[in-house]
Design goal:
The structure holds two protein chains of two kinds. Chain A has a four-stranded mixed beta sheet with strand order 4-3-2-7, with no helix packed on it. In chain A, strands 8-13-9-12 form a four-stranded mixed beta sheet. The N and C termini of chain A lie far apart (about 45 Å). Chain A contains five helices and 13 strands. Chain A is globular. Chain A is α+β, with helices and mostly antiparallel strands. Chain A folds into two domains: about 25-110, no CATH class; about 140-255, OmpA-like domain (60s Ribosomal Protein L30, Chain: A). By secondary structure, chain B is an alpha+beta fold. Chain B has a domain at about 5-140 and about 190-270. Helix content of chain B is about 25%, strand content about 15%. In chain B, strand 2 (about 45-50) and strand 3 (about 55-60) form a beta hairpin. Classes of the chains: A alpha+beta, B alpha+beta. At the A-B interface, helix 3 and helix 4 of A face strand 11 and strand 15 of B.
C-alpha cells in the first residue's frame, strides 16, 4: 500500500497513459540470482525476488544487468508477454541498478528453462561506415534526453549510445548555435525494501559533464554548456519506457539556435 | 608422405629467393635476425619458417631498401633500431626464442640487451645472463611509466588510487632512482606486433562502451581514435607511439624529425603479416580456406564479426572439403585442416561464463557473469582484436587470476574513491595496465587486446608472457573461466591459433 501511494506521488506529473500504468509498477531492492540457461551468447537469466511480496521476477531484459556480487534496485512493469523462458514472470520494461550493497553470489542451474536467445535490441547503432539518414526538420530548439543507472553517470550501452547517436545525427544536420547539457539527480530520499535510497547531488553534475564531454567529441567545435539540477521530477518521454524513476535519472541535451 | 597440391605452395618469386627454413642457428644467409643498420632490402614478400609452418610478411609497394630507413637504422645511443624488437621472422614482434638465440650468438652483446630496458634493471650487472632473465625467458621488455599519472587524453588526471611496492625482485621499483617514490613504475611487457596496423587503427563505432564516452579525438587529425594501441593504451596514435619508442627503447636524445615520422608511419601501414603455410595442413589459402596475409592486406579493416564476416570463418572451406581436393591430402593433413576449422567454431560457439572481468562484466552492463565465447572480446573480422577499444582485465597481470611469479614486481593498489568493481578496495598486481594511463582504479589490470595474427612466430603470449605456448593460452582461459573444453576442443583451438 505504502508503495502504491509513493508511486502515485511520483507519477503525478506524468501523462494519463503513464499514470494509468502506475498501478503495475514494481520497485524493490534485492540480491540477484543468476540462472545458468544456455541458448547461446548472452542468454543467461537474471532473477530477482521481491521480499515484500515473495514474488520472483525475471529481470533479464534490463539494458544494464546485475552483478551477482551486489544488490540491485529493480524497477519495472510486468511484461505483456506471458512466456516464462527463465522460469518466472518477466518484468519488461525493467531496470536493474547495481547498488554498493554486497551480496552472496548465487547461481542456479537452468532446470530445463531455455533462457532467451539473444537478439539485437531495438536500440542499437550501426557502425560508422553506415551513413545515417539526414533527419527531417524543422530545425528549431529541441531537447534530447539520455538516461542512467541509479546514482551513476555511465553511458549505457545499447541505450544511451543510440539516443546520442540519433541526437548527434540531428544536431549535425540542424547546426544549432550551442548545446546546453543539463544533468539531473533524483535526490529526494525514498525507502525501498527497507533501504533508504537517494542519488548523490553530485551525480547531476557528473552526468552533465560526462555527456558534455561526449558531445564535444562527437560534434567538435560546437559550444557546449553544462548545468545541473537536483530533486529531479519524472517526465513522460517514451524513451524512458514509462518508468518514472528512469525518467528522473537523466541528462538533457538541448540544442539552442 | 604425399605432397600437397602444388598450388598450395606457389609463392611469389621474391619470397622464394629469401624463403629460408627453420634451423636458423647461425649459418643462415641472409640471417633470420635483422640487425640494425644492415641496409638489407626488405622484399615485397618475405617468408620465415617456424615450428608450425611458414609466416609471410608482405610489404605493400615493396621491395623496400632499408638503408637509411628510420625503422631499420640505429637512431640512438644504444645501437638499436625499431626492427630490433619488431622482427620480420617474429611477426614484427619478438619471440623469447629469438632473444635467446641473440644472447647465445653475441654473448649478450646484442643491442637488444641494452641496460635501459633489455635487462631486468639497469642497476644489475649487465654481463650476467640472469640480469636479462625476463627478456630471455619470457620475452619481456622493461617499460617505465611515470607516477602519479598526470594526464589522459590531454586532460589532467589525479589518480583515484595509491600504489605501493610489495616486492621488487629486480630493483627497478625501489631505491633512490626507481619506483613510485622516485616518480616511476617499472612493468615488463611483450613487444606488440607492428603489422596489420590498419586494423588496429580502424574505428568501428563512435563510442567506447567500456569507458562510457564517445571515442577520444586524435590530437593530430581530430578524428576518433581506435584506442587499440599498447597494452596500457598510453599512445592513441602512431605518432605518439613512435616518439615514446624513440625516447625509451632507442634512447634517442634528439626528437624524430618530421621526415622520419612520416617514413615510420608510412612503413607501419604497409606491413602485413600472417601464417601462410601450416606444417600440418598446407597453405592457408588453399582447399577453400581464405586466410593468409594477402587477404589481410586487401580487406577493409574494422568490421565486427557478429554482424559481418564471422571471426576465423576464413577456415570454413576446411570444414568440408570437396572430395577431389580432399583426396590429394594425407589423412593427417585432412585431419589437421578439419581441426583448424573446428577450432574456429569452438572460438565462436563454445560458450562459457565470463566472470569478474572489468571492461566486460563492469561497467558496461552485460552483467556479471555473462555467457559468451572467445569471440565476444576478440570480435574483429580477420584480426581477432576488439573493434571497440580493447581494454579488458582478463586477470593476466593481477592476482588472484595471474599465475604466481617470483621474478615480477608486485604492487599493492589501494582505491581511494570507489572500490574496484570486482577486486574491492585493495588490488595486488604485477602490472596495473590501463590504470597507469587513465588513473582510474577501475581500470587497474586492464590490458589492451592484441591482434591474433602471426601467433606461431611470436611466443610467449599475453602482455607479460604468461603463456609460454598456444596450449598455455588455452590452459589459462580454462583456469580463469572453468570453461570445460574437451581435449579435442583444446587441440582444435591450438591448431586454429597456429594457423593465423
Amino acid at each position: 500500500m505504502k508503495r502504491l501511494a509513493l508511486l502515485g506521488a511520483l507519477c503525478a506529473a506524468t501523462t494519463a497513459q503513464a499514470a494509468q500504468d502506475t498501478g503495475a509498477l514494481v520497485r524493490f531492492v534485492t540480491c540477484p540470482v543468476y540462472r545458468d540457461t544456455d541458448a547461446g551468447r548472452k542468454s543467461g537469466c537474471w532473477l530477482a525476488d521481491d521480499r515484500d511480496t515473495g514474488q520472483r521476477w525475471d529481470v533479464t531484459e534490463s539494458p544494464y544487468k546485475p552483478d551477482w556480487n551486489f544488490a540491485v534496485l529493480v524497477e519495472g512493469r510486468p511484461s505483456a508477454n506471458a512466456a516464462q523462458p527463465c522460469g518466472s514472470p518477466a518484468l519488461d520494461p525493467v531496470r536493474t541498478s547495481r547498488l554498493d550493497i554486497p551480496c552472496t553470489r548465487h547461481m542456479i542451474p537452468a532446470e530445463g528453462f531455455p533462457g532467451r536467445r539473444y537478439t539485437l535490441p531495438r536500440r542499437n547503432i550501426g557502425p560508422l561506415s553506415v551513413a545515417r539518414p539526414v533527419p527531417p526538420g524543422p530545425y528549431v530548439a529541441r531537447t534530447f534526453p539520455v538516461y542512467f543507472e541509479f546514482d551513476k553517470d555511465f553511458l549505457v550501452y545499447q541505450y544511451d549510445d543510440w539516443l546520442i547517436d540519433n541526437a548527434v545525427t540531428w544536431i549535425r544536420a540542424a547546426r544549432p548555435k550551442k548545446l546546453v547539457v543539463t544533468g539531473y539527480a533524483a535526490t529526494a530520499p525514498e525507502t525501498v525494501s527497507g533501504v533508504k535510497l537517494a542519488e548523490r547531488p553530485e551525480v547531476a553534475k557528473e552526468r552533465a559533464e560526462t555527456i558534455a564531454e561526449t558531445m564535444r567529441r562527437l560534434v567538435p567545435g560546437l559550444a557546449v554548456e553544462t548545468k545541473w539540477k537536483t530533486a529531479a521530477k519524472p517526465t513522460d518521454d517514451p524513451e524512458a519506457d514509462g518508468l518514472p524513476w528512469q525518467s528522473q535519472r537523466r541528462a538533457e541535451i538541448r540544442a539552442v539556435f | 608422405m604425399h605432397l600437397l597440391p602444388q598450388k598450395s605452395f606457389v609463392v611469389p618469386l621474391a619470397a622464394l629467393i629469401l624463403a629460408v627454413s627453420g634451423g636458423a642457428r647461425g649459418g643462415e644467409t641472409p640471417d633470420r635476425w635483422w640487425a640494425p643498420g644492415e641496409g638489407r632490402v626488405l622484399p615485397a614478400a618475405l617468408d620465415y619458417a617456424n615450428e608450425n609452418g611458414t609466416l609471410r610478411t608482405l610489404t605493400v609497394g615493396g621491395p623496400l631498401d632499408t638503408a637509411g630507413h628510420p625503422f631499420f637504422e640505429p637512431l640512438g645511443k644504444d645501437g638499436r633500431a625499431c626492427v630490433t624488437c619488431h622482427q620480420p621472422a617474429d611477426a614484427m614482434s619478438l619471440s623469447a626464442a629469438s632473444a635467446q638465440r641473440q644472447w647465445d650468438r653475441t654473448d649478450g652483446k646484442d643491442p637488444l640487451f641494452a641496460a635501459y630496458d633489455g635487462s631486468n634493471c639497469p642497476t644489475l650487472p649487465q654481463d650476467k645472463r640472469e640480469s636479462h632473465s625476463l627478456l630471455l625467458d619470457r620475452g619481456l621488455i622493461r617499460i617505465e611509466r611515470p607516477w602519479p599519472t598526470k594526464s589522459f587524453n590531454g586532460k589532467p588526471v589525479k589518480p583515484d588510487f595509491t600504489i605501493e611496492v610489495v616486492r621488487d625482485p629486480n630493483g627497478c621499483n625501489s631505491g633512490p632512482q626507481y619506483g613510485p617514490q622516485a616518480g616511476k613504475i617499472s612493468v615488463y611487457r611483450r613487444p606488440r606486433p607492428v603489422a596489420n596496423m590498419k586494423y588496429l587503427l580502424a574505428v568501428g563505432f563512435p563510442f567506447d562502451p567500456k569507458q562510457g564516452y564517445a571515442l577520444p579525438l586524435d590530437p593530430d587529425d581530430g578524428k576518433p581514435q581506435s584506442g587499440n594501441l599498447m597494452a596500457d593504451n598510453r599512445a592513441g596514435n602512431l605518432r605518439i607511439q613512435m616518439e615514446d619508442a624513440a625516447n625509451t627503447h632507442l634512447q634517442m636524445l634528439k626528437a624524430l624529425t618530421a621526415a622520419q615520422r612520416q617514413q615510420l608511419q608510412d612503413f607501419e601501414l604497409r606491413v602485413f603479416t600472417a601464417m601462410q603455410v601450416t606444417n600440418g595442413g598446407g597453405a592457408v589459402d588453399s582447399g577453400g580456406a581464405k586466410a593468409g596475409p594477402a587477404r589481410l592486406r586487401d580487406s577493409e579493416p574494422g568490421a565486427l564479426g557478429s554482424i559481418g564476416e564471422p571471426v576465423w570463418s576464413e577456415f570454413k572451406g576446411w570444414e568440408k572439403m570437396p572430395a577431389d581436393e580432399a583426396a590429394m591430402l594425407t589423412p593427417e593433413q585432412l585431419a589437421f585442416r578439419q581441426s583448424v576449422a573446428r577450432g574456429a567454431r569452438v572460438f565462436r560457439e563454445k560458450m562459457f561464463l565470463i566472470t569478474d572481468t572489468a571492461g566486460i562484466n563492469s561497467r558496461i552492463g552485460f552483467g556479471n557473469p555473462v555467457r559468451n565465447s572467445c569471440v565476444f572480446c576478440h570480435n574483429m573480422s580477420q584480426m581477432g582484436n576488439d573493434v571497440a577499444p580493447g581494454q579488458v582485465d582478463l586477470g593476466t597481470t593481477t592476482l588472484p587470476f595471474a599465475d604466481p611469479w617470483q621474478d615480477l614486481p608486485l604492487f599493492r593498489v589501494t582505491c581511494t574513491g570507489r572500490p574496484h568493481p570486482h577486486y574491492g578496495k585493495v588490488i595486488y598486481t604485477y602490472d596495473p595496465g590501463f590504470g597507469l594511463t587513465s588513473g582510474k582504479c577501475a581500470d587497474v589490470g586492464k590490458i589492451t587486446l592484441q591482434s591474433m595474427r602471426g601467433l606461431s612466430a611470436r611466443a610467449p603470449y599475453f602482455s607479460n608472457g604468461l603463456a609460454k605456448d598456444l596450449r598455455g593460452v588455452v590452459d589459462y582461459y580454462e583456469r580463469r573461466y572453468s570453461i570445460g573444453y574437451s581435449e579435442q576442443e583444446k587441440q582444435d583451438l591450438v591448431n586454429l591459433m597456429s594457423a593465423l
